[in-house]
Amino acid sequence: MLRWHVVSAVFRRNVASYFSGVLGYLFIIAFVVAGGLLAFRPQFFTNNIASLDQLSEGFPMLLLFLIPAITMSAWADEKKLGTDELLFTLPATDLEILLGKYLAVLAVYSIALAFSLTHLLVLRSIGNPDLGVAFCTYLGYWFAGAALLSAGMLGSVLTNSTTVAFVLGVVICAVPVFIGSIAQSSDLLRGLSVREQMHDFELGIIPLSGILYFVSLTVVMLYLNLVMIRKRHWSSGQQTSMGAQYFARAVCLALALVSIAYIASHTNARADLTHEQVYSLSPTTRDVLSEIKSEHPVRIQAFVSTDVPRDYAPVRTRLTGLLRQYARLAGAKVDVQYVEVEPFSKEAEEAKTLGITPERVRSEREGRHYEDTIYLGAVISSSFDQVVIPFFGAGMPLEYELTRSIRTVANEKRSTVGVLRTDADVIGSRDWQIVTELKQQYNVKEVSPDSPIDESKYDVLLAVMPSSLTEPQMANFITYIKKGRPTLIFDDPYPWVFNSAFGVSQAPKLPKPAPGGQFGGMMGGMGRQPAPPKADDGKATSLLNTLHIAWDNGRVVWDSFNPHPEFVTLPEEFIFISPKSRMTSAFSTTSEITNGLQEMLAAFAGEIMPLKEKGVKFEPLLRTSATSGVMEWDEFTDQGFDFQHGFTPTARIKDGRPHFRDKGGHVLAAHLTSEADNPYKLNVVYVADVDLISDWFFVTRNLGEINLNFDNVPFVLNAVDVLAGDNKFLDLRKRRTALRTLTTVEAQTAKFVEERVAMTKVADDDAKQKLKDAQGRFDEKRAEIENDKNLSPPQKEELIRRLKEGEERRLEVAKANIDRDKQQEIDNAKSAAERRIRETERKIMIQAVLIPPIPAIVLGVVVFLLRLGRERKAISPDRRAER
Known about the structure:
By secondary structure, the protein is an alpha/beta fold.
């Protein structure tokens, strides 16, 4: 039986010896400074996320040198000084001494880790971190360090040299730190790595499997320590046999503990400490499972590759964990089957037959880039219906996808979404991703505008670019809307999604492209029949009047707010919609469509405004920031032609576009419903941007290839659900961690952006004035000629012609010089703003590195002064006088 007073005595002795000198405090200071350099490096400001992700990424490497520095003297110094013999002659067992020493190094590590909590104070001062995630992250740090301390002590027990003990500690600790990187193709070995086991803690989860892994590693290493210190009891003739016995015992113990940890990893037992509880089954999922009819059970076939790259291992783990929870909650009503797929196997053929497509994904191993083909999909079916999820990407919300599919197949009938056929060609020869996504939940049908639309067939009608409709088509569309049928409209003054090397040919202000082959060539387009004109010349006036809104088909919105330093080169016509822009109504909090959304991205969007007439309730859904404005068609476009498609007219983006800031808060989307005095029952969501639903957002969301999480997809799906009267998935779809950015940094750098916009306006105004002056000089000279009575009309005409030719050449040269100077001033303004932003970030980074060690420095100085005072008191006055 352990005697804890003996363990406590050994513990106090070792802790006191560690902090008896200045070395212990220097070590803590070095640890905190190194942690600050990792946590607040430049990538931290680029990501603009208030988290310790950068520290977590480098923490295993930090432990690789920190832990051996703590443990190198645990046994080696005892052997070197000969105090180990005295220690083992004390009335204490080997286990009690071992535990006392281990708890001592654990206390030292815990103290150092506690001092590094100052990183959280810095993080809290510049952002709004999730404290639940921060607690789990530090708990993961503590468990990882506690496990590696036992490994570091094993290196110390093998030698009497602290230097050699440090090297041996690094080598032994490197095994659990690097085993995941060395054996990425093995799930078992990868699961034994410290990096892999810390992942859940960093997300805000306390996993039972992770705790058991670190505890198991600690127990095995402490047992090996115990074996090595008991080795002194073995006689010389027993060395081989005893060594073999203890080796076999250690292997059996390790296998037993690894098995326990492996079993725990498949139970998915975990505590979710995130503020939004995003890793716990939602009430929506529980309701959907409870509503499944026992006579129509749901079958889930998950096809998963046996080996997946490291980036997709968490997806597979999360998927299997969720399916186990579904099966446990639903019982016999959900039949879950796991199919492990090897390449070219019969399981792979079965998966392809059912619609599960192998996906080629990129991964990095040992500094090299690889492409792997993996299966990671599911077929959800019942006696009513079937849904195929071809691939679960790293960015997909797994619970939402599974729960939505289960509910879809459990219901006898799906709702129907009609997609209006327009020049956007959203459905037909190649479906847009929005159509593919809607097919997972709805019956999706193409709708022709050439004849009256049957309002009884569709629960929601989706219309993309209705401004391209002809007059008869527009009339049929408006008649459908006036009947009160739910309609989702996307229109765009400059649809960037159709941009090509020649510009955009699908803009409402341009004529409809002539029908015919795609590659008409320079001569092929001349013989084609011209396309019929657009209704209202592309202005959609009749539609807008019906909806009681105003929209200019040649005006786009820009916004200088950009919270993503990695996208600093994007033009300001790419609009980031977020409450972080200091526009509190960026997302409507009263609408079920946008409540809970965090960030969206639009491009070259238009602006919609309500008309003064009553009759329609105008509920804004999306707004720009206060640092925004509008540009007219001639200010941001040049005219051109698409020579590959029969001289089709196009519009190209101008360089040096003017950005004049106005009051801001431009509305990009609104929900329009009829009021009591309106004869029509309108129910329309109108969005003045088509790029908002481009395929890029769906692909990025599914594959998760970049560290972004725009809410464009949830916004569109929410709009369809609300219009269809199905609110089941609204909360589940928005369920993810809150967008926690570096608010203080954003506030400090925002003023530099505003100054840049102001300087740009000054440069543009100056350029306009110079052009006006040049034009004025030409007008004055022409007036002098016209007023000269000594000249005959033919002479005046000839002089004006010569003057015009000369002045036009000079005006063109002057305009080019003015534009060049203006662009130079704009570039200088941007460069100055960027320099000041970088300087602000460097200042914060320096403070974040230098401030955290201050408590440790103060404590070290206080302890040193107290110790010095005690030493002076212990010396007699006579001896002090002699000195």
